[in-house]
């Protein structure tokens, strides 16, 4: 059997493929320049199409269901949210040797969120909290229940218990595994008691756009769904700190059990990344160690 060039992540996806897909399926846009965006993701490749559109293509089969999900739900979520989300303009079908559905979206102007690009980080944290709460208020009836399509964001963090325990074992002697285990155990001991609620699934600096120092848009709903929204609080430790973290905590509210599960989600990601990159990527390791330390300290104070 011939192996698809799209079966190994980003391989095979380039501007020439996008040009062929557009020409074949949306000839009215044929001839518009196609170029990669400056800040791209892993799950999808994104290209500018002219000045007002983007083309979003899943990089592997596991990410492909997100296109259908976003195309269905983004137009319904958008009116209830305080900042823009990607407008869906057209849905592409497999073609030109590319095996997955893909999407044409409207371009949203801005830069990815970094502290140095934000004029008032505590105020920015409040705006992010307002987005999270607005999303939680959207009617979740018939929404996509947390599962494989969301990589189990919105499900109990125990789905990743085995993976987390293996990372803890691999990191024995390299981090404070006793404190980390206490954070994980506290996450597993709590449970979401509310009704299924909308969550984004990846509230991270790369998915938040800033313009003129303010929150301008939220991108990438590929891991969204309905379930437990604890995963949307992880940005408290990955972007915010000090006054901005406290502003986010106060504005978003949530009870202690929710925060315990949020720490668990953040811990899981930091641990598996540390276990993978500890001896090979010093910059990534420093970032993950920082997040881990912040989560452990947070648990010591609030847990």
Folded structure, characterized:
By secondary structure, the chain is an alpha+beta fold. 40% of the residues lie in helices and 14% in strands. The strands form 3 sheets. A 5-stranded antiparallel sheet has the order 1-2-3-5-4, with helices on both faces. The chain has a 3-stranded antiparallel sheet with strand order 6-8-9, with helices on one face. Helix 4 (161-170) runs antiparallel to helix 5 (177-189) and helix 5 crosses helix 8.
Which key features would you list for this structure?
alpha+beta, Phosphorylase Kinase, domain 1, 14% strand
Write the layout of secondary structure elements.
Layout: H1 15-25, E1 34-36, E2 44-49, E3 53-58, H2 65-77, E4 88-92, E5 102-106, E6 111-112, H3 121-137, H4 161-170, H5 177-189, E7 197-199, E8 208-211, E9 214-218, E10 225-227, H6 235-238, H7 242-252, H8 256-277, H9 282-302
Antiparallel strand pairs: 1-2, 2-3, 3-5, 4-5, 6-8, 7-10, 8-9
Report the C-alpha radius of gyration, rounded: 20 Å
**String of helices and strands:** HEEEHEEEHHHEEEEHHHH
- Major sheet details: 5 strands, antiparallel
- Model regions low in confidence, pLDDT < 50 over at least 5 residues: none
Name of the CATH superfamily of the largest domain? Aminoglycoside phosphotransferase (APH), C-terminal lobe
Q: At the third CATH level, what is the topology name of the largest domain?
A: Aminoglycoside 3'-phosphotransferase, Chain: A, domain 2
Task: Tell me the helix content.
Answer: 40-55%
| Spatial gap, N to C terminus | 53 Å
CATH class of the largest domain: Alpha Beta
Number of helices: 9
Strand content: 5-15%
> What value does the average pLDDT take?
93
Return the structural class.
Answer: alpha+beta
Q: How do the strands of the widest beta sheet line up side by side? A: 1-2-3-5-4
Give the total of beta strands. Answer: 10
Name given to the CATH architecture of the largest domain: Alpha-Beta Complex
The tally of domains stands at 2
Q: What general outline do the C-alpha atoms trace? A: globular
């Amino acid at each position: 059997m011939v192996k698809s060039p799209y079966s190994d992540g980003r391989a095979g996806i380039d501007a020439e493929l996008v040009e062929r897909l557009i020409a074949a399926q949306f000839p009215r846009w044929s001839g518009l320049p196609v170029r990669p965006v400056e800040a791209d993701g892993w799950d999808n490749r994104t290209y500018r199409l002219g000045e007002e559109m983007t083309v979003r293509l899943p990089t592997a089969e596991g990410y492909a269901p997100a296109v259908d999900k976003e195309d269905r739900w983004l137009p319904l979520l958008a009116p209830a949210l305080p900042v823009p989300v990607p407008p869906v303009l057209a849905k592409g079908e497999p073609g030109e040797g590319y095996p997955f559905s893909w999407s044409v979206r409207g371009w949203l102007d801005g830069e990815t969120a970094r502290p140095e690009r934000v004029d008032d980080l505590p105020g920015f944290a409040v705006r992010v909290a307002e987005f999270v709460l607005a999303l939680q208020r959207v009617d979740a009836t018939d929404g996509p229940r947390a599962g494989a399509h969301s990589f189990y964001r919105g499900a109990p963090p125990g789905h990743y218990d085995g993976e987390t325990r293996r990372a803890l074992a691999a990191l024995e002697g390299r981090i404070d595994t006793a404190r980390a285990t206490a954070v994980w155990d506290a996450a597993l001991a709590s449970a979401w008691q509310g009704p299924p609620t909308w969550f984004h699934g990846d509230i991270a600096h790369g998915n938040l756009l800033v313009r003129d120092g303010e929150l301008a848009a939220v991108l990438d709903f590929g891991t969204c769904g309905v379930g437990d929204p604890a995963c949307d609080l992880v940005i408290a430790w990955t972007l915010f700190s000090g006054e901005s973290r406290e502003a986010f905590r106060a504005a978003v509210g949530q009870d202690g059990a929710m925060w315990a599960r949020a720490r668990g989600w953040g811990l899981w990601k930091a641990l598996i990344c540390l276990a993978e990159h500890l001896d090979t990527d010093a910059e990534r390791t420093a970032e993950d160690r920082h997040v881990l330390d912040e989560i452990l300290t947070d648990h010591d104070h609030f847990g």
